[in-house]
Each structure stands twice: as C-alpha cells, then as structure tokens.
Amino acid sequence: MIDGKTLPLRTDVPENDLDTFENKLLNLCQEYFLDLSKSELLQTGRSKDILEKYKENKSLSNFEQAYINEYLLRSLTQFLPSFLKRTANKVELERFTEEKAFQEKLRQEAIEKQKLLESDPVYIAKQKEQALLKKYEINEYISGALPIEISEILSKLDREIRLSQDEAVWLNTLGKKFFSSKVRHKFHRLEANYYLQEYKKNVKNIWNAINASSQLRKCQASLEAEGLLESITVSDKKDKKLLSAYFTTLGGVRRDLRKVNVAIDNASKAHNLTPDNYRPCTLLGAIYMETYQYTLGHEWYEKAIERGATDQSVNADLKSIISKMDKTKRNEMIEHLLKLDHLTYSWLKSLKVAVVNNPKIKQNKVEQTVKAQKKVSPPQSKKTVQNKQPKNSEKSLQSLLEQGAKAHNLKNPASLSKPSCMKPKKK
Fold this sequence. Notes:
By secondary structure, this protein is mainly alpha-helical. The chain is built from 20 helices and no strands. The chain has helices at 15-33, 45-55, 62-118, 121-135, 140-143, 148-158, 165-172, 181-201, 206-218, 222-230, 240-256, 260-273, 278-290, 294-306, 311-323, 327-340, 349-356, 361-376, 382-387, 393-407. Mean pLDDT is 79; it is low at 359-397 and 407-427.
C-alpha cells in the first residue's frame, strides 16, 4: 500500500525467487525471534527443547521442523503491526520532509522572483501608480485603461506640486471621470496654497486673496477663507469690480458657514456695487433657495440669467442644493418651482418622480386604503359627490386662502363665491 492505494500482487515472480525470499525471511525470523528470553509466546518445556535443538543445528524430525516454522510465523505476526505502523510513520515523515523542502524551494524561488521584479523600473512605476490610485480613490478597473496624463497628475498632486493650466483643463474635461473627490480636494488645496503664497508676497494685491478664498471654499476650508478675507481692509478701496468680487466671495464663504444674514448682506453689497454682474445674483438665488424662500431664489436666479449666467450653471446650483435636502423639502421645493415657472423648471420633474417612486410606508397604506374604498363604494354622479362635501369645507378653504394672501402680502384673498356668469338669474 502506497499513499492509501493497494498495489496489485505480482504473479510473475519466478519460483526460485520465492524460495530465496522465504529462506531469507526464515533466517531473519530465526535471528530475531529465537531469543526465548524476549519471546512473548507461551513457552512449554517441549517447545524449549525443540528451539534449543534447532539453535544447536541438531537434526529435527518433520514435526519439530514444522513446529519451528509455525513458531517463527506466529512471532512474525506479532511483530508485523508495530512494524507496519513504524514503517507508515517513517514514510509519512519522509513525505512531510520532502513536501517541506519543496515548499521552501518554491518560497525561495518566489523571493528571487520578487527581488527581480522590485529591481525592474516598469514594475516599480506600476506599483507606485497602484498606490496613488488607491490613495485618491480611483478604480482603474471601472475607469478602464489609464491614460498617461492621470499618472503624471497624481504624481504631481502627491508631491504637492501645482498642476499646469493644460493639466487642469484636461482634468476638468477629458479626464473628468478621474476627478474624484480626493483629487478635487487636493487640486483646490494646492491652488489655494499658490494664491496664498502670491498674496503673502504682495498683500496689496487683494485679487490673490480673493482667488485663494474661492479655492479654499472648494476644499472645505471656508473657515480659513473667512479669516483671510476678514483680515483685509477694503474701506479705502475704490475699485467697484474688486469690491464686488470681495463681497461676493465673502458672502459665499459665509453661506458655506451657514451665516445666512451676513451672507445676504455681503451679496447685496456686491450687487449694489456691480448691478450688471450676475455672480452676486447667483449667490443670492442660492442662499434664498437653501433657506426655503423659493420665490425670492427664483427671482434672483432670473436676474442672474438676464445678466449672463448660463442655464446650465443655475441648474447645477439647484441640483447641488436639492441633493442636500431631505425628501420632504426636496419635493416641496420642486413643486414650488414648477408652479412658479413650469417650462424653466420642467427638468425638475425627473427629480420629483425619483422622490415619488420611493414613498414612505405610510403613503403606501393611504393609497391602499383609497383603492379599497373605490372597490367597495359604488360609482356616484358628480352632483351627488358635491352634495356630500362637509358643510365646513368652504370655511376651511377660505381660511387657507386668507393665509396665502397674508403670506404674499395681498390686500384681499381670493373669493370662494361663484362668478357672476355662474349665478342663477333671478326670475
């Protein structure tokens, strides 16, 4: 038996070989099993005599010869189990030793292979690239084959080197799918650092501080930007364009920090300084939308578009604002804007559908109840349904109209009375 498999017995062994094997086996048995002092077999006086006679090479009768052979076989039978166990252990130990040696050989080969790889410039570059992709959360398998531009850009960002204008343009256009949040954050941080250094070289050039603050906003450092802008004295400045940019940027920073009132004040100052500039209008539109004053937000966005803001930039602003709202407020804002201008905000319908397609469990229950009521209740004429309205429904509706009039500063609410053309003529 080898490795758990029983090998077939050979039947082609010559007779002479069998005789030779038997003689050798008997000789071995005689050598190892005729020591009476070590034998575990039952010894009788007669067997001792026969064994002694056999050891002294005296002639034996046929019976005595047969007895000796039987004795030897019985001794061998006792010996075999321990022998087989020891042999199996030895084979297993040898197999284990060989396997260990083989594994060690493979390990050494792998080490040598790794050493060769680590000395290969191509492999080194690939490993660095993989590390950068992981660090900046770019999945190369989703993104497909990596262009050479992204490797150079990531290497620069990691070494705190500002990107060239061409690289920045590529990242915002052709390489947009690689512009992950971490890449974006690092890019704007390096831009901010550049303008901060330029401003330190010449504190009279406030434009560098404004540009630095704009970049700081984009890498979640609005508090740092506010401190920078507040440290600048602008009361003696006469350049309206500069002042407008300063107050617009400061207003945006304070919008980020949820300082709504001062943000509105800053944006209003910027608008008064440059009434034809769309940027303060866009800022005011965003602030009012975020504070749920949708009509005011809509009006300021319209002013921004009239002054040169693109529909795409305004829509991107709105998408960003809506994405941060909970479902209730999101739906409320969409409904309000659609009522204000159904055509301009028609693209919001898709966002509204997304909200409606994921209703709450409570809404599902209400819909199911309504369906069940429709099945149970027989169809009724419009006249019957109108007659069954609660008596106080007109009072409730009138109250809602009065609240709406108050909210929109109207002198008189809309009347619930039927128009004159609907009143019955007197007979």
